[in-house]
Amino acid sequence: MKYPVGSKTKNSCYIEYSNRGMGLEDDLNITNEQYRINDIAFIYKKPTPVTISKVEFNNKKEPIIKEGFYKKPSTTDYNGLYNGLYIDFEAKETKSKSFPLSNIHQHQIKHLQNISKHKGFSFLIIKFVTENKIFLLEEKKLTSFIDNEKRKSIPLEYFMNEGYLIKEKFSPRIDYLEIINKIILKEK
Fold first, then answer.
1. Contact assessment for residue 14 and residue 1, using Cβ atoms and an 8 Å cutoff
2. Which of 137, 132, 138 is nearest to 168 (CA)?
3. Using CA atoms, how far apart are residues 73 and 107, in angstroms rounded to an integer?
4. pTM, whole model, 2 decimals?
5. Is the peptide bond before 4 cis (omega within 30 degrees of 0)?
6. HSE-up of 72 (CA within 13 Å, CB side)?
7. How many degrees, rounded to 5, is the angle at CA 110 between CA 107 and CA 115?
8. pLDDT digits (tens, 9 = 90+) for 82-125
9. What CATH number does domain 24-47+73-187 carry, 3.20.20.70, 3.30.565.10, 3.40.1350.10, 3.60.15.30?
10. How many CA atoms lie within 13 A of 144 on its CB side?
11. Given the DSSP bridges, would you call strands 121-128 and 85-94 parallel, antiparallel or unpaired?
């Protein structure tokens, strides 16, 4: 924040919240930046591995990517460290009252399972856009649903019963580490 008159304090950053319609990914990127600036956690968006196959140059001799393809399937959206804990998660939005399992690939589910198996913390963050609700669902709850249900989508009710509601705030916008702290305290 710039207050007063543009002065900055050591642990603050200027973040514009005028675009309230921004997507989940933008909100998570802002949240993760705040975590880094305040030395709370170091969690980053993973780049999607792409091979560029066609480039053209404009009149200013700047390259413009015209064609590319995915090198290999990507794993999940975000990973990093928080208080000695490796964190890995996928973030998705849905306009439905259920989350279609087709929105997450089998190799991503397997990746989340492998992270959990090796003592990392893996999960989904799902935003139900029409309901304006965001949930954290642990990998083990995702796996349980897939193993025990025949449905092709996870209903909102499952997230309400088995997941954790993340309340949006001003700063950090989507404080999922607050939920992770609660989960870790429960397990102790």
1. yes
2. 132
3. 8
4. 0.78
5. yes
6. 4
7. 125
8. 999 999 999 999 999 999 999 999 999 999 999 999 999 999 99
9. 3.40.1350.10
10. 10
11. parallel
